[in-house]
Design brief:
Distance between the termini: 62 Å
Radius of gyration: 23 Å
Number of strands: 13
Structural class: alpha+beta
Strand order of the largest sheet: 1-2-8-3-5-4
Number of helices: 15
Order of helices and strands: EEEHHEEHEEHHHHEHEEHHEEHHHHHE
Strand content: 15-25%
Length: about 425
Protein backbone atom coordinates (compact mmCIF):
# COMPACT_ATOMS: atom_id res chain seq x y z
CA UNK A 1 0.00 0.00 0.00
CA UNK A 2 1.09 3.56 -0.63
CA UNK A 3 -0.18 6.84 0.77
CA UNK A 4 0.01 10.28 -0.79
CA UNK A 5 0.20 13.63 0.96
CA UNK A 6 0.37 17.12 -0.53
CA UNK A 7 1.51 20.08 1.53
CA UNK A 8 2.41 23.73 0.96
CA UNK A 9 5.73 23.97 2.81
CA UNK A 10 6.49 27.62 2.04
CA UNK A 11 4.74 30.30 -0.02
CA UNK A 12 4.53 28.87 -3.54
CA UNK A 13 6.39 25.67 -2.54
CA UNK A 14 4.40 22.43 -2.68
CA UNK A 15 5.44 18.91 -1.74
CA UNK A 16 3.77 15.80 -3.16
CA UNK A 17 5.02 12.78 -1.20
CA UNK A 18 4.24 9.12 -1.82
CA UNK A 19 5.07 6.84 1.07
CA UNK A 20 5.65 3.30 -0.21
CA UNK A 21 7.92 0.35 0.40
CA UNK A 22 7.52 -0.89 -3.16
CA UNK A 23 10.86 0.34 -4.51
CA UNK A 24 14.50 -0.17 -3.54
CA UNK A 25 15.27 3.40 -4.54
CA UNK A 26 13.83 6.72 -3.46
CA UNK A 27 13.14 9.35 -6.08
CA UNK A 28 12.61 13.04 -5.59
CA UNK A 29 12.57 16.16 -7.72
CA UNK A 30 12.74 19.94 -7.33
CA UNK A 31 11.02 21.67 -10.24
CA UNK A 32 10.58 25.40 -10.83
CA UNK A 33 7.44 26.32 -12.77
CA UNK A 34 7.00 29.44 -14.88
CA UNK A 35 4.79 30.54 -17.80
CA UNK A 36 6.13 29.30 -21.14
CA UNK A 37 7.42 32.27 -23.13
CA UNK A 38 9.27 32.18 -26.45
CA UNK A 39 11.75 34.89 -25.57
CA UNK A 40 12.88 33.17 -22.35
CA UNK A 41 12.49 29.48 -23.18
CA UNK A 42 16.08 28.84 -24.32
CA UNK A 43 17.61 30.66 -21.35
CA UNK A 44 15.36 28.79 -18.93
CA UNK A 45 16.14 25.45 -20.60
CA UNK A 46 19.84 26.10 -20.04
CA UNK A 47 19.53 26.57 -16.27
CA UNK A 48 19.12 22.95 -15.06
CA UNK A 49 22.20 21.92 -17.03
CA UNK A 50 24.22 24.77 -15.53
CA UNK A 51 23.06 23.84 -12.03
CA UNK A 52 24.44 20.35 -12.54
CA UNK A 53 27.87 21.67 -13.55
CA UNK A 54 28.80 22.66 -10.01
CA UNK A 55 27.91 24.23 -6.67
CA UNK A 56 29.83 26.32 -4.15
CA UNK A 57 30.92 23.21 -2.24
CA UNK A 58 31.22 20.96 -5.33
CA UNK A 59 32.47 23.29 -8.09
CA UNK A 60 32.91 20.77 -10.90
CA UNK A 61 31.47 17.55 -12.28
CA UNK A 62 34.25 15.44 -10.76
CA UNK A 63 33.46 16.57 -7.23
CA UNK A 64 29.73 16.08 -7.91
CA UNK A 65 30.45 12.54 -9.11
CA UNK A 66 32.52 11.83 -6.00
CA UNK A 67 29.68 13.01 -3.77
CA UNK A 68 27.18 10.83 -5.63
CA UNK A 69 29.47 7.81 -5.18
CA UNK A 70 29.46 8.44 -1.45
CA UNK A 71 25.67 8.40 -1.56
CA UNK A 72 25.56 4.77 -2.73
CA UNK A 73 25.99 5.73 -6.37
CA UNK A 74 22.92 7.93 -6.60
CA UNK A 75 22.12 10.04 -9.65
CA UNK A 76 20.94 13.57 -10.35
CA UNK A 77 19.58 14.60 -13.76
CA UNK A 78 18.55 17.95 -15.25
CA UNK A 79 14.93 17.97 -16.38
CA UNK A 80 13.24 20.38 -18.82
CA UNK A 81 9.56 19.79 -19.62
CA UNK A 82 6.38 21.60 -20.52
CA UNK A 83 3.02 20.80 -19.00
CA UNK A 84 0.23 22.68 -20.70
CA UNK A 85 1.66 26.16 -21.17
CA UNK A 86 3.99 25.96 -18.17
CA UNK A 87 7.77 25.54 -18.43
CA UNK A 88 9.05 23.03 -15.86
CA UNK A 89 12.74 23.23 -15.01
CA UNK A 90 14.52 21.28 -12.33
CA UNK A 91 16.59 18.45 -10.97
CA UNK A 92 15.58 14.82 -10.51
CA UNK A 93 17.37 12.62 -7.99
CA UNK A 94 17.36 8.85 -7.55
CA UNK A 95 19.08 7.26 -4.54
CA UNK A 96 19.08 4.02 -2.61
CA UNK A 97 16.06 3.96 -0.32
CA UNK A 98 16.87 4.39 3.36
CA UNK A 99 15.47 0.96 4.19
CA UNK A 100 18.19 -0.71 2.07
CA UNK A 101 21.35 1.01 3.33
CA UNK A 102 23.96 -1.40 4.72
CA UNK A 103 24.50 0.27 8.07
CA UNK A 104 20.92 1.26 8.66
CA UNK A 105 21.76 4.97 8.46
CA UNK A 106 19.52 6.74 6.00
CA UNK A 107 20.90 8.88 3.19
CA UNK A 108 17.71 10.70 2.19
CA UNK A 109 18.56 13.81 4.17
CA UNK A 110 22.08 13.99 2.71
CA UNK A 111 20.74 13.41 -0.80
CA UNK A 112 18.05 16.11 -0.56
CA UNK A 113 20.52 18.56 0.95
CA UNK A 114 22.97 17.86 -1.87
CA UNK A 115 20.39 18.45 -4.61
CA UNK A 116 19.17 21.53 -2.71
CA UNK A 117 22.76 22.77 -2.72
CA UNK A 118 22.92 22.40 -6.51
CA UNK A 119 19.64 24.29 -6.82
CA UNK A 120 20.31 27.12 -4.41
CA UNK A 121 24.09 27.50 -4.32
CA UNK A 122 25.37 27.09 -7.89
CA UNK A 123 28.99 27.63 -8.77
CA UNK A 124 29.57 31.25 -9.77
CA UNK A 125 32.33 33.52 -11.03
CA UNK A 126 32.10 37.27 -10.44
CA UNK A 127 28.60 36.86 -9.03
CA UNK A 128 27.09 35.08 -12.06
CA UNK A 129 27.27 31.70 -13.76
CA UNK A 130 30.69 30.57 -14.96
CA UNK A 131 31.62 31.89 -18.39
CA UNK A 132 33.17 28.57 -19.42
CA UNK A 133 30.25 26.48 -18.16
CA UNK A 134 27.75 28.78 -19.85
CA UNK A 135 29.61 28.64 -23.17
CA UNK A 136 29.83 24.84 -23.06
CA UNK A 137 26.20 24.34 -22.10
CA UNK A 138 25.05 26.82 -24.77
CA UNK A 139 26.81 24.64 -27.34
CA UNK A 140 25.14 21.54 -25.92
CA UNK A 141 21.72 23.22 -25.96
CA UNK A 142 22.13 24.31 -29.57
CA UNK A 143 23.13 20.75 -30.47
CA UNK A 144 20.03 19.37 -28.72
CA UNK A 145 17.76 21.76 -30.58
CA UNK A 146 19.38 20.94 -33.93
CA UNK A 147 19.26 17.20 -33.26
CA UNK A 148 15.46 17.26 -33.01
CA UNK A 149 15.29 17.25 -36.80
CA UNK A 150 17.19 13.95 -36.96
CA UNK A 151 14.24 11.94 -35.66
CA UNK A 152 11.79 12.77 -38.41
CA UNK A 153 8.74 11.18 -36.81
CA UNK A 154 9.10 13.25 -33.65
CA UNK A 155 10.12 16.29 -35.68
CA UNK A 156 6.88 16.13 -37.68
CA UNK A 157 4.70 15.96 -34.56
CA UNK A 158 6.65 18.86 -33.06
CA UNK A 159 6.17 20.90 -36.22
CA UNK A 160 2.44 20.32 -36.35
CA UNK A 161 2.16 21.57 -32.77
CA UNK A 162 4.25 24.63 -33.62
CA UNK A 163 2.02 25.42 -36.59
CA UNK A 164 -1.36 24.81 -34.98
CA UNK A 165 -0.35 26.69 -31.81
CA UNK A 166 1.86 29.35 -33.43
CA UNK A 167 -0.10 32.15 -31.74
CA UNK A 168 -0.32 30.33 -28.40
CA UNK A 169 2.34 29.68 -25.74
CA UNK A 170 1.97 25.93 -26.33
CA UNK A 171 3.63 26.35 -29.69
CA UNK A 172 6.91 27.25 -27.96
CA UNK A 173 9.45 24.43 -27.96
CA UNK A 174 10.52 23.06 -24.58
CA UNK A 175 14.16 23.85 -25.39
CA UNK A 176 13.47 27.23 -26.96
CA UNK A 177 14.72 28.54 -30.29
CA UNK A 178 18.22 27.98 -31.63
CA UNK A 179 18.30 31.58 -32.83
CA UNK A 180 18.08 32.76 -29.20
CA UNK A 181 20.94 30.64 -27.85
CA UNK A 182 23.83 32.71 -29.13
CA UNK A 183 22.66 35.85 -27.28
CA UNK A 184 22.55 34.09 -23.89
CA UNK A 185 25.18 35.34 -21.44
CA UNK A 186 26.19 34.32 -17.91
CA UNK A 187 24.58 37.56 -16.68
CA UNK A 188 21.26 37.08 -18.50
CA UNK A 189 21.07 33.46 -17.37
CA UNK A 190 21.82 34.43 -13.78
CA UNK A 191 19.10 37.08 -13.80
CA UNK A 192 16.61 34.58 -15.22
CA UNK A 193 17.64 32.00 -12.59
CA UNK A 194 17.23 34.44 -9.70
CA UNK A 195 13.84 35.49 -11.05
CA UNK A 196 12.75 31.84 -11.17
CA UNK A 197 13.86 31.28 -7.58
CA UNK A 198 12.02 34.35 -6.37
CA UNK A 199 8.83 34.21 -8.42
CA UNK A 200 8.51 30.68 -9.82
CA UNK A 201 6.35 28.09 -8.15
CA UNK A 202 8.43 25.22 -6.80
CA UNK A 203 7.04 21.70 -7.00
CA UNK A 204 8.74 19.08 -4.84
CA UNK A 205 8.12 15.36 -5.26
CA UNK A 206 9.19 12.36 -3.21
CA UNK A 207 8.55 8.63 -3.58
CA UNK A 208 10.04 6.19 -1.06
CA UNK A 209 9.70 4.58 2.34
CA UNK A 210 10.43 7.60 4.57
CA UNK A 211 7.54 8.81 6.78
CA UNK A 212 5.68 11.83 5.47
CA UNK A 213 6.64 14.12 8.36
CA UNK A 214 10.32 13.27 8.01
CA UNK A 215 10.20 14.09 4.30
CA UNK A 216 8.51 17.44 5.01
CA UNK A 217 11.10 18.33 7.64
CA UNK A 218 14.03 17.45 5.36
CA UNK A 219 12.76 19.52 2.44
CA UNK A 220 11.77 22.43 4.66
CA UNK A 221 15.19 22.51 6.30
CA UNK A 222 16.93 22.29 2.91
CA UNK A 223 14.98 25.18 1.37
CA UNK A 224 15.22 27.74 4.16
CA UNK A 225 17.36 30.04 1.97
CA UNK A 226 14.96 29.94 -0.99
CA UNK A 227 13.98 33.54 -1.83
CA UNK A 228 10.24 34.08 -2.05
CA UNK A 229 8.90 37.34 -3.47
CA UNK A 230 5.45 36.38 -4.73
CA UNK A 231 3.89 35.88 -8.15
CA UNK A 232 3.60 32.08 -8.02
CA UNK A 233 0.31 31.73 -9.90
CA UNK A 234 0.47 29.69 -13.11
CA UNK A 235 -1.48 30.40 -16.30
CA UNK A 236 -4.25 28.11 -17.34
CA UNK A 237 -3.65 26.90 -20.90
CA UNK A 238 -5.49 28.68 -23.67
CA UNK A 239 -8.04 26.11 -24.85
CA UNK A 240 -9.48 26.61 -28.34
CA UNK A 241 -12.41 24.21 -28.86
CA UNK A 242 -12.10 24.12 -32.65
CA UNK A 243 -10.39 25.66 -35.65
CA UNK A 244 -12.14 28.09 -37.98
CA UNK A 245 -10.26 26.72 -40.99
CA UNK A 246 -7.86 23.84 -41.60
CA UNK A 247 -4.26 24.99 -41.95
CA UNK A 248 -1.98 23.05 -44.32
CA UNK A 249 1.80 23.15 -44.16
CA UNK A 250 4.31 21.26 -46.29
CA UNK A 251 8.04 21.13 -45.72
CA UNK A 252 10.78 19.55 -47.85
CA UNK A 253 13.85 17.75 -46.48
CA UNK A 254 16.08 14.90 -47.58
CA UNK A 255 13.74 12.08 -46.50
CA UNK A 256 12.90 8.80 -48.19
CA UNK A 257 9.50 8.51 -46.53
CA UNK A 258 6.81 11.14 -46.05
CA UNK A 259 5.68 12.10 -42.56
CA UNK A 260 2.04 13.07 -42.23
CA UNK A 261 1.08 14.73 -38.94
CA UNK A 262 -2.44 15.93 -38.26
CA UNK A 263 -3.49 18.08 -35.31
CA UNK A 264 -7.05 18.08 -34.01
CA UNK A 265 -8.73 20.16 -31.31
CA UNK A 266 -10.73 18.11 -28.81
CA UNK A 267 -13.65 20.51 -28.51
CA UNK A 268 -12.25 21.85 -25.25
CA UNK A 269 -11.97 18.46 -23.54
CA UNK A 270 -8.84 18.27 -21.38
CA UNK A 271 -7.62 16.22 -18.42
CA UNK A 272 -9.73 18.51 -16.22
CA UNK A 273 -12.97 17.68 -18.06
CA UNK A 274 -15.59 15.14 -16.94
CA UNK A 275 -15.50 13.74 -20.50
CA UNK A 276 -11.76 13.03 -20.41
CA UNK A 277 -12.07 9.27 -19.64
CA UNK A 278 -14.35 8.92 -22.68
CA UNK A 279 -11.85 10.86 -24.80
CA UNK A 280 -9.09 8.49 -23.67
CA UNK A 281 -11.12 5.52 -24.91
CA UNK A 282 -11.98 7.36 -28.11
CA UNK A 283 -8.28 7.89 -28.76
CA UNK A 284 -7.50 4.23 -28.01
CA UNK A 285 -10.21 3.00 -30.39
CA UNK A 286 -9.26 5.45 -33.13
CA UNK A 287 -5.46 5.24 -33.12
CA UNK A 288 -3.96 4.70 -29.69
CA UNK A 289 -3.45 0.93 -29.68
CA UNK A 290 -2.49 -1.98 -31.94
CA UNK A 291 -6.18 -2.89 -32.16
CA UNK A 292 -7.19 0.62 -33.24
CA UNK A 293 -8.89 1.58 -36.47
CA UNK A 294 -5.82 3.39 -37.77
CA UNK A 295 -3.58 0.41 -37.14
CA UNK A 296 -5.89 -2.32 -38.40
CA UNK A 297 -7.44 -0.49 -41.37
CA UNK A 298 -5.05 2.22 -42.57
CA UNK A 299 -1.83 0.36 -41.86
CA UNK A 300 -2.64 -3.36 -41.98
CA UNK A 301 -5.64 -3.75 -44.30
CA UNK A 302 -4.96 -0.96 -46.82
CA UNK A 303 -1.16 -0.71 -46.38
CA UNK A 304 -1.31 3.06 -46.77
CA UNK A 305 1.12 3.81 -43.92
CA UNK A 306 4.23 2.34 -42.39
CA UNK A 307 2.76 3.42 -39.06
CA UNK A 308 -0.35 5.32 -38.03
CA UNK A 309 -1.32 6.24 -34.50
CA UNK A 310 -2.86 8.97 -32.39
CA UNK A 311 -2.14 10.47 -29.00
CA UNK A 312 -3.54 13.10 -26.65
CA UNK A 313 -1.96 16.25 -25.27
CA UNK A 314 -4.28 16.12 -22.31
CA UNK A 315 -3.54 19.48 -20.68
CA UNK A 316 -3.98 21.44 -23.90
CA UNK A 317 -6.93 19.72 -25.53
CA UNK A 318 -5.19 18.35 -28.62
CA UNK A 319 -5.12 15.02 -30.43
CA UNK A 320 -2.16 14.40 -32.74
CA UNK A 321 -2.12 11.81 -35.51
CA UNK A 322 1.26 10.59 -36.73
CA UNK A 323 1.89 8.48 -39.82
CA UNK A 324 4.67 7.53 -42.21
CA UNK A 325 3.60 7.28 -45.86
CA UNK A 326 4.96 7.03 -49.38
CA UNK A 327 4.86 10.47 -50.97
CA UNK A 328 2.31 9.45 -53.60
CA UNK A 329 -0.01 7.93 -50.96
CA UNK A 330 -0.30 11.11 -48.93
CA UNK A 331 -3.83 12.10 -49.93
CA UNK A 332 -5.22 8.57 -49.78
CA UNK A 333 -3.75 8.14 -46.31
CA UNK A 334 -5.19 11.43 -45.08
CA UNK A 335 -8.61 10.62 -46.54
CA UNK A 336 -8.67 7.18 -44.94
CA UNK A 337 -7.54 8.53 -41.57
CA UNK A 338 -10.44 10.96 -41.60
CA UNK A 339 -12.77 8.19 -42.77
CA UNK A 340 -11.87 6.16 -39.70
CA UNK A 341 -12.57 9.17 -37.50
CA UNK A 342 -15.97 9.48 -39.17
CA UNK A 343 -16.55 5.81 -38.37
CA UNK A 344 -16.00 6.60 -34.70
CA UNK A 345 -18.32 9.59 -34.94
CA UNK A 346 -21.07 7.39 -36.39
CA UNK A 347 -20.69 4.93 -33.52
CA UNK A 348 -19.32 2.10 -35.68
CA UNK A 349 -17.51 0.56 -32.74
CA UNK A 350 -17.62 -3.17 -32.19
CA UNK A 351 -17.80 -4.60 -28.65
CA UNK A 352 -14.33 -6.15 -29.06
CA UNK A 353 -12.93 -2.74 -30.03
CA UNK A 354 -14.42 -1.17 -26.93
CA UNK A 355 -13.21 -3.97 -24.66
CA UNK A 356 -9.72 -3.99 -26.14
CA UNK A 357 -9.36 -0.23 -25.86
CA UNK A 358 -10.58 -0.26 -22.28
CA UNK A 359 -8.23 -3.04 -21.20
CA UNK A 360 -5.25 -1.47 -22.94
CA UNK A 361 -5.85 2.01 -21.53
CA UNK A 362 -6.45 0.78 -17.98
CA UNK A 363 -3.34 -1.39 -18.16
CA UNK A 364 -1.23 1.55 -19.33
CA UNK A 365 -2.48 3.68 -16.44
CA UNK A 366 -1.72 1.01 -13.88
CA UNK A 367 1.82 0.52 -15.16
CA UNK A 368 2.47 4.13 -14.11
CA UNK A 369 2.33 2.85 -10.52
CA UNK A 370 5.20 0.45 -11.24
CA UNK A 371 7.67 3.11 -12.36
CA UNK A 372 8.92 5.91 -10.13
CA UNK A 373 9.90 8.15 -13.03
CA UNK A 374 6.49 7.91 -14.65
CA UNK A 375 4.81 8.57 -11.31
CA UNK A 376 6.92 11.69 -10.81
CA UNK A 377 5.99 12.95 -14.27
CA UNK A 378 2.31 12.13 -13.66
CA UNK A 379 2.09 14.04 -10.40
CA UNK A 380 4.00 17.03 -11.77
CA UNK A 381 1.43 17.30 -14.56
CA UNK A 382 -1.44 16.95 -12.12
CA UNK A 383 0.05 19.64 -9.89
CA UNK A 384 0.38 22.04 -12.82
CA UNK A 385 -3.22 21.37 -13.87
CA UNK A 386 -4.54 21.64 -10.30
CA UNK A 387 -5.72 18.02 -10.29
CA UNK A 388 -5.44 15.39 -7.56
CA UNK A 389 -6.61 12.34 -9.50
CA UNK A 390 -4.20 9.38 -9.45
CA UNK A 391 -3.78 6.79 -12.21
CA UNK A 392 -5.89 4.20 -10.37
CA UNK A 393 -8.79 6.63 -9.91
CA UNK A 394 -8.75 7.43 -13.61
CA UNK A 395 -8.55 3.72 -14.43
CA UNK A 396 -11.68 3.13 -12.38
CA UNK A 397 -13.48 5.94 -14.20
CA UNK A 398 -12.72 4.21 -17.51
CA UNK A 399 -14.64 1.13 -16.38
CA UNK A 400 -17.98 2.92 -16.65
CA UNK A 401 -17.53 4.71 -19.99
CA UNK A 402 -20.00 3.53 -22.64
CA UNK A 403 -20.03 3.74 -26.45
CA UNK A 404 -22.36 6.73 -26.50
CA UNK A 405 -19.89 8.76 -24.45
CA UNK A 406 -17.04 7.77 -26.75
CA UNK A 407 -19.06 8.82 -29.80
CA UNK A 408 -19.82 12.16 -28.20
CA UNK A 409 -16.12 12.92 -27.73
CA UNK A 410 -15.34 11.76 -31.28
CA UNK A 411 -17.93 14.20 -32.61
CA UNK A 412 -16.21 17.01 -30.69
CA UNK A 413 -12.90 16.44 -32.49
CA UNK A 414 -12.09 19.01 -35.15
CA UNK A 415 -9.20 18.97 -37.64
CA UNK A 416 -7.01 22.04 -37.18
CA UNK A 417 -3.66 21.57 -38.97
CA UNK A 418 -2.17 19.12 -41.47
CA UNK A 419 1.61 19.00 -41.74
CA UNK A 420 3.45 16.97 -44.37
CA UNK A 421 7.18 16.40 -44.49
CA UNK A 422 8.12 15.54 -48.05
CA UNK A 423 11.35 14.95 -49.99
CA UNK A 424 13.32 17.58 -51.85
CA UNK A 425 11.52 18.86 -54.90
CA UNK A 426 13.13 18.05 -58.18
Amino acid sequence: MSTLTRTELLPGVFLTAIHTGKFKSSMFSMTLLTPLRAQRAATEALIPFLLLRGSEAHPDMQSISTQLDQLYGGSVSPVVRKKGEVHCLGLLGSFLDDSYTLDGNGILEQAVQFVGELLLQPYTENGVFSEAYTRQEKGNLADRIRSEINEKRLYATQRVVEEMCKDEPYGVSTLGREADVDAITPQSTWECYRDLLSHGRLELYYCGSAPAQKVKDIFLNTLQELPREGGYDLPRPLILPQAETVRRVEEHLDVMQGKLAMGLRTGGITASSPDYPALMLCNAIFGGTTTSKLFLHVREKLSLCYYADSGLHKFKGLMLISSGVEFEQRQRAEDEIMAQLESCRRGEIEPWEMDGARRSTISALRTVLDNQGRQEDWWLGQAVAGLDQGPETLAQALETVDVAQVVQTAQALCLDTVYFLSGREG
